[in-house]
Every structure is written in C-alpha cells, then in structure tokens.
Design the sequence.
C-alpha cells in the first residue's frame, strides 16, 4: 500500500475552514477564494491521503466522515503549532527572549509565584519558562552563572556586585511550631528558652560561611528544602520562622501555632529582583520585574 502524501499547511487550513463553516461556499467566503478552488483543494487532499473526508451524498451540506473527524482533530493541532511557531518568530524579530529563566528564593510564597507566572503566560504565551527554586544565596549563584536571567531573593544572602537590583515587596516571617510543642506555652510572663529546643533553619546546601540569620537556638537542624522544613514543623520536630502566607492555612486549621517568643519575633524578609548588569533582560524580563514590583502576598491571595 502506498504511503499517504504529506498535506500542505494550506490544504489543512482549507479543511478546517470547511469543517468550521459547514460548507465549501462559506469556507470560500472566509478565505476569499472561489468555491471551486475550495472543492479542488479538498478533493486533492482526499486523493493524497487516500481517504474520504466528507460525506457529500447523504446531506445537503458536506458532513465529516469518521476518518474526516480524526484528520480534522490532527489538523487543528498542526495549525496551532504553526501559529505558535509564527508567534515565536515574531517575538524573535522583536528581540523577545527565547526563554525566561527565573530563579526565586524558597522564601517567596508559592501563591505569589503562581500569580506571577500565570500573568506572564497570558502576556507572553510563546516564551517558555524555566523556574529554579533556590534556598537563600542559591539565587545569586544561578544568576551570576547565567543559568537564570532574573533572580528574586534577598540582599541578606546576595552580594550585589555586578547586579542591577530592584526592591520588591518583602515577605512577613513569623515563628511557628506544632500546637503541642512546648514553646506554644511561652508568654511574656513566662518566656521559654528557645535555645533549648530544635530550631529548623532553611539553609543553603552546602551551608555558606558567615550567612547565619535568625538563628537563636543552640540546637539547629539545617534544611535545604522549604517544603521539607514545613513538613517537619507539622510533625512537631522543632520550631522555625516561616513566611506567614505559607503557614496561614495551617494556623487557621490548628495544624501549627504562632509562637510568642521574647528573643525571636520574626519580621520582614526583604526581597529584590536582580539581574546581571552586563546582560540586561529583554521585553519579557522587564515586564516580569515590573510585575514583581507591584505583586504582594495580599494581592496574590485575593486573586
């Protein structure tokens, strides 16, 4: 059996227009062609494929055969791919980035990341995203190495030499523990000694020298993954400072409790968007930074 010929893009577009409009005449009007030209294109396509795509005899209007429905489904996928290809080429001609590589600090709440990338996809549907989630100083390393174009992190953990930085809304960090943890009983009248209990600290892997912040316990567990630290807190294996948006639902449900500690109140974790000064971002990257400047945890939660 002879293999079917490869149809042209134009033939597939004619097929889709006939299927969508329900007639050769209507498809011709939409495409600005004579009805005879539409009929010829479909006849040629059927001959090349060796299939009858339309049942022209049983109804006044051409009706797709079972095989025709399957071919139309595939044709839609091909047409979509072609449109995406054309859009990406238009982006290249406009100096749009081929990819957006973004590194974010693990302290940045997931809701804010989701909201940010959802809006980015709507604005730049042809630009694929590479998302890197790094603890603390890891953001600086991947941006400096060129693995990420834009980083979202904190100047507490980054050397800004050679970087262009833009301040963005920070994250409120609060001390929490499981509700049955001994520190939950602490109060102003009877403060607990936090140094006596395991503190779960988000840490770079391997740990960076001279970059300990917010550590008050003599017994620390250093965790390189925010999600793992969250699970350990829920399991009652220590206490720690967590971004309030990440643990908000846990506190409301009674899975975690906010601690009243005399020597560790928490506070704002300042954040910046950065990029290497010698490799400034293109249009998509600039849009991303502008969005980061106005996006807050409150706006992300409300959305």
Sequence:
């Amino acid at each position: 059996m002879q293999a079917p010929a490869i149809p042209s893009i134009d033939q597939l577009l004619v097929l889709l227009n006939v299927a969508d409009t329900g007639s050769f005449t209507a498809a011709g009007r939409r495409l600005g062609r004579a009805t005879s030209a539409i009929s010829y294109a479909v006849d040629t396509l059927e001959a090349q494929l060796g299939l009858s795509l339309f049942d022209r005899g049983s109804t006044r209007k051409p009706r797709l055969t079972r095989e025709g429905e399957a071919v139309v489904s595939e044709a839609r996928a091909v047409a979509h791919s072609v449109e995406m290809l054309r859009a990406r080429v238009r982006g290249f001609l406009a100096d749009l980035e081929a990819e957006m590589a973004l590194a974010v600090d693990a302290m940045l709440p997931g809701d804010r990341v989701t909201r940010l990338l959802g809006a980015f996809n709507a604005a730049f549907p042809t630009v694929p995203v590479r998302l890197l989630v790094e603890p603390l100083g890891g953001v600086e390393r991947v941006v400096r190495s060129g693995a990420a174009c834009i980083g979202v992190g904190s100047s507490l953990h980054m050397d800004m030499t050679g970087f262009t930085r833009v301040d963005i809304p920070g994250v409120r960090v609060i001390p929490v523990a499981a509700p049955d943890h001994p520190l939950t009983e602490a109060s102003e009248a009877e403060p607990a000694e936090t140094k006596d209990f395991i503190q779960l600290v988000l840490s770079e892997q391997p740990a960076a020298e001279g970059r300990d912040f917010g550590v008050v316990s003599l017994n620390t567990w250093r965790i390189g993954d925010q999600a793992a630290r969250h699970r350990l807190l829920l399991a009652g294996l220590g206490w720690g400072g967590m971004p309030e948006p990440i643990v908000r639902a846990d506190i409301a449900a009674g899975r975690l409790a906010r601690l009243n500690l005399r020597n560790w109140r928490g506070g704002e974790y300042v954040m910046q968007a950065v990029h290497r000064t010698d490799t400034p971002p293109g249009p998509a990257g600039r849009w991303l930074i502008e969005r980061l400047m106005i996006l807050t945890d409150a706006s992300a939660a409300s959305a």
